[in-house]
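Forum: Protein Structure Q&A
Topic: Joint prediction for protein chains with partners

I've read a bunch of threads here and the consensus seems to be that you should model interacting components together rather than docking separate models afterwards. I'd like to see that in practice. Below is the full input, 1563 residues plus whatever partners are listed. Could one of the regulars post the assembled result?
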Amino acid sequence: MGRSDSTSMEMSDRQPSSRTVRLGRLQPQAPGHRTIFCNDPEANLPVKFKGNSISTTKFNILTFLPKGLFEQFRRVANLYFLMISILSTTPISPVHPITNVVPLSLVLFVSLVKEAFEDWKRLQNDRSVNSSPIEVLQNQKWESIPWRRLQVGDIVKVKQDGFFPADLLFLASTNPDGVCYTETANLDGETNLKIRKALERTWDYLTPDKAFEFKGEIQCEQPNNSLYTFTGNLIIQKHTLPLSPNQILLRGCSLRNTAYIVGAVVFTGHETKVMMNAMSVPSKRSTMEKKLDKLILTLFSILFLMCLIGAIGSGVFIDRKYYYLGLHEGVENQFNPNNKFVVTILTMFTLLTLYSTIIPISLYVSIEMIKFIQCAQYINKDIHMYHIESNTPALARTSNLNEELGQVEYIFSDKTGTLTRNLMEFFKCSIGGEVYGTGITEIERGGAQRNGIKVEEVPRTVTAVHEKGFNFDDTRLMCGAWRNEHNPDTCKEFFRCLAICHTVLPEGDESPEKITYQAASPDEAALVAAAKNFGFFFYRRTPTTIMVRESHVEKMGSVQDISYEILNVLEFNSTRKRQSVICRYPNGRLVLYCKGADSVIFERLMDGNNDLNNSSREHLEYFGSSGLRTLCLAYKDLSNEMYESWNDKFIQAKSSLRDREKKLDEVSELIENDLILIGCTAIEDKLQEGVPSCIETLSRAGIKIWVLTGDKMETAINIAYACSLINNGMKQFIINSDTDSIREVESRGDPVETARFIRDIVKQKLKKCLEESQRSLHTLSGQKLALVIDGKCLMYALDPALRGNLLNLSLRCSSVVCCRVSPLQKAQVTSMVRKGAQKITLSIGDGANDVSMIQAAHVGIGISGMEGMQAVMASDFAIAQFRFLTDLLLVHGRWSYLRICKVVTYFFYKNLTFTLTQFWFTFHTGFSGQRFYDDWFQSLYNVIFTALPVIVVGLFDKDVSASLSKKYPELYKEGIRNTYFRWRVVAVWAFFALYQSLVLYNFVTASSKIANNLSGKMFGLWDVSTMAFTCVVVTVNIRLLMACNSITRWHHISILGSILAWFVFIYIYSGIMTPYDRQENEYHVIHIIMSTFYFYLTLLLVPVVALLGDFIYQGLQRWFFPYDYQIIQELHRNDPEVSSRAKLQEIGNQRTADEERSYAISQLPRETSKHTGFAFDSPGYESFFASQQGVYAPQKAWDVARRASMRQPKTHKRK
Amino acid sequence: MNTEMASSSGGTGSTDPSAPRRHSKRPKYSRFTQQELPACKPILTPQWVISAFTLISFIFIPIGVASLLASRNVVEIVYRYETDCIPINLRGDKVGYIQSTLDKNCIKMITVPKRMKHPIYVYYQLDNFYQNHRRYVKSRSDTQLRDKKKENDTSSCEPEESNGGSPIVPCGLVAWSLFNDTYSFSIKNEPLAVNKNDISWKSDRDSKFGKDVFPKNFQNGTLKGGATLNESIPLSKQEDLIVWMRTAALPTFRKLYGRIEVDLQANEVINVTLENNYNTYSFNGKKKLVLSTTSWLGGKNDFLGIAYLTVGGLCFFLALSFTVVYLVKPRKLGDPSYLSWNRNPAGH
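Posted by a regular:
Agreed with the consensus. Here's the joint model:
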């Protein structure tokens, strides 16, 4: 369903490739290069590059049937039925082949039609893509050809809003500076624009006649699936120019804001990066399905046992004394009394075909159908999970995990963007050892309230500014007042650092009111906005300069525009955790500004100045405990000579072909040292709406929530407090690497020693905590436990030797917070619980750094609507807000679990009951394997007479209403404990199936021994079996009704309909002579049996007796051992049925002040970046996958510079 | 603070929040998608359980009584004769006797225990005879029985499909093993007529057995299975065959032989002349002659009546005991203290 769903998504976009975007494993690069001669088809000919036409279909006309059938028969159940069908064409079989062929072909037909339809859609898509026109340079002219005829080395022209037909080398653009803007929504769902910049050397090849002269040679890597890397060189006239991802335009992206560009084709068709990514993610199977397999296996063993008993019986029975069976010499092997062993073996097969109905063939199809409707109609259309601000409904991307949602025990949540809003506001700062900013965060307030301290609110002054990204008030800094502080020079450096050291793009009018900043992360935008408000207004960026309008610098009120020359940008990535800019002042001063995580900055500070460093450290801790995100700012003055020598190394590294990223990092390291600390910033990250109450509800439901975040420990703990994950009543275990002893060892600089030391510390701590937790468990005081651990310690704790301890400890804790963890560790923690504790896990996150964890958990949930799509693309379900988890789990998940359990157990029961009646009959036929029922009865039993009601139950059954499910979250525990699908439950069903089959068979046959009507006539075999079958159909259908908690009119319709369908069928069937069945056993049978009173009396008696057992059981169970849901039902039995309609229609009209605010914010032009959290949460997934493979792949965002999509009318519509 | 925000957001010229959004993806409300279909939610309260039991017992006991009475009104004489009809000196080798050409007639007296109103049905009952054996059941050709032109359609009749190259009509084991004991009755030397018409289901006579299909080549083989058929009578009139060919469901079965259409008085002695031809001795099968009247329900079968009475009685007993339990140990409906998390709040 995930597949088809994304197909439909892409259909609406009329773009082919988004379906194929998957974050797969990084394929190890094939050795060697590819050499492309641009604009020279003859030279490229010998290499035989692949064409540009693509095919994403699974089948073609010829292969559809064989391949489609092959896929179907990879399912064991289908294969089994195929074998049975083949077996039933042999004389061994007691049943006509139709008995098994009809249900099998119905099931196959449904599946194949679905496959064919999906593939046909794909074909249509491919065709329209392959034939879309593209302009190619031919004979000094642009000529339009379809995409599919494009060749490697061709020079193409792509116009504005057009899609790139292949992976192109960007040569020239109509924009000045050789830049163009691309939208990558089809690759990663990001709607913001990315800048690509052509090599200066190629800027001129824009017109056809110029481009014709272009004869370059591209040496580049072989096609691979890494979207964010590209290494290669362009050789023009013996000059070798290094190429980077910056010059590559990927297929699937589109051109924006640029009249047209000219590019050379590098990779075509299936070799393009986006197509190389087109691998299907291994689909997740639900735990329930795996248990189902066990149940099916059990059924197989029951089947085998039954066949064995029957076969042995037949061997014993067969004897020539039954002369009327004609067992003379020369009788076929199956009945040859001289060879009883062969008789036994052959009868085994006979019985196998006869009892094949014990395996419910339509089970999988029914479940698939039910789950599909549950997803498409319930989850996707639930108004309660619709988020009005972002206009996002919930989205189920896979349909096979619905019931898993009802059994989740552990939730792993990302913090930023998931628990918090990722609405970053500059809130406080510390400059030169002084704290500025008078605001009080909600977390501080909450903490104070918990401790019973009254917080003194500082009244807001006139200077207070609250705008997007900036919520700061301190008269000491605003309006140039900083000049009067005791350290104005530090303040100046601070503000300049904010204004210069970033990769933000300004947009809109160059006035402080109207400008908007487009940044890679909201933190960055907030920092630049802060600089603006402090009087350092960054308003223009060119490739080499940054223009800042500075106020109050020389004297109060004076304004001057200063242009800083940007020499180098040392980009941010998650290993570096810092970003530096080297700039030259107009007066020639050469400065490196650096901002980054405190850990990396403090390591690189110049010695001395310990007072400032220590007080800043204190401030950082204070900010952290207020739930603020912090960054440290530092600078370093450079001398010209030093810079020049360094810059040579930098350029060298930049143009290296191999390990460029690594080399760049190493070179950066050379200059980013001996920094001078300026101060630090504190940014507030607001909690999402309804998070604390949602978390409280979920924990009442028995779900344990772990927070895995890249943030600092203090921030994480405080967010955990704010979300009521941790409270003061809990015993907290903190395993932290940021201790003095560890720092001391680290400062010695021996990595081996450090590792050993930390490992020992972690080991001891784990042991101690484990003991303490044991003690506190035994004290019965019921004190809840919480564990906080940071990434570094986690690294050691996840070591196989310690993992067991960590798992034991963390399972005892009701909440766990892991901070400063990498994406890889998030995944490791998730799979530790998943595999180690065998619990059902759910991961929820919004950013690319959560992808690994989302894929590692049983159920992955992406937060949609706010940021990019990376997490959503990897997820199984996407919701707009964390709080919708309540609905998704407690309502949809729980119901789905209940329903699927009911459907599965019922399927098991009805097939067992039916087959057992057949089994009992075998004992009375001399074990000959004679069928009790007509072939058609047997074949239609599963697909017609009992098919629909169970689907209705799978869709409509609910024990308690949605609001009660949320009011009593404890009900969810039944799912966690798997109350409804344990062996005991199955055994009860099996017991009653046994009982009912005995009643059904014996009661019906017992009444057939004597004359059955007034005229003394007798029933034959087929009369008895038709009567028995009628009773079976009635009984199993009513049994389903008894299992229902709520009965809608669809229940009535389907159950009555099924019974009626049987009668209609038998009336028609017994009225006609079937031409293919040479024995007209059923002819007139129904008229005969319905002409007797026996029929009606039996029809009343047998179902009642058969169901009496279940009824007594249900009555007793409810009376003495009621399930929780039953109590709730009773509690609220008199509640009026409230429709949520009236309530729902009010949504959107009445907003709280807070909602109003977030709505207003959502209406603002927003930065649409998915890389949440500047400092620590970054797209590390690429390297995560790479490191899993043992390949080194540095992280690299698309581009540092991002741009809003506001001005483009096309993207505007998307909003 | 909030007013400030509102004004600043207004200042950016964003759309009016109260105005309907153009591309709203808000799902439409429908009872189906919101899972709020009207439904009745039956709760199996003790009252319901008790009343259900009471209701069943109130319905079942009268039906049980009526069926039992009907069954008890039926007078049935069952006479087992497979051993009695063999001369005592030959009982050592029953199979030899039945396969010999000796005279198989056997005259027995039966006393009527109770007055039997006509029609009195005459049945034969066989035991340990697997008419439902797979090999046996399928060894017939319904098309051949129905249609004169299809007399060669004997492929399913193995091993009795043809004899000497020409097809057997009716073919197959079922027909071949046709029961061939005959009974004739007399009271005080007055013969008692046995009506052998209309002993088969009408639909069989009319549709399954052809009016123009005559027996052919039947029982001509070396091994004789059972009765022979008069080749001048069409199959649709051969009611013994029709009855026989409606194969029985269980290895013990009765088949209708004929009707006696006079009343029999109590203590009357009937002379039965049995022609004991059929071989059930090979497989130790019993043979019984049954004379029975019928009620509205059919023959003498206490099963239904007893079953109904038992279930009705059981339900009555259950209703009573549930009531007692309900009075002794009531459970308040919807008592929150029963909730699992209230019973052990620690949740372990």
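Chain A touches chain B through 124 residues (CB under 8 Å).
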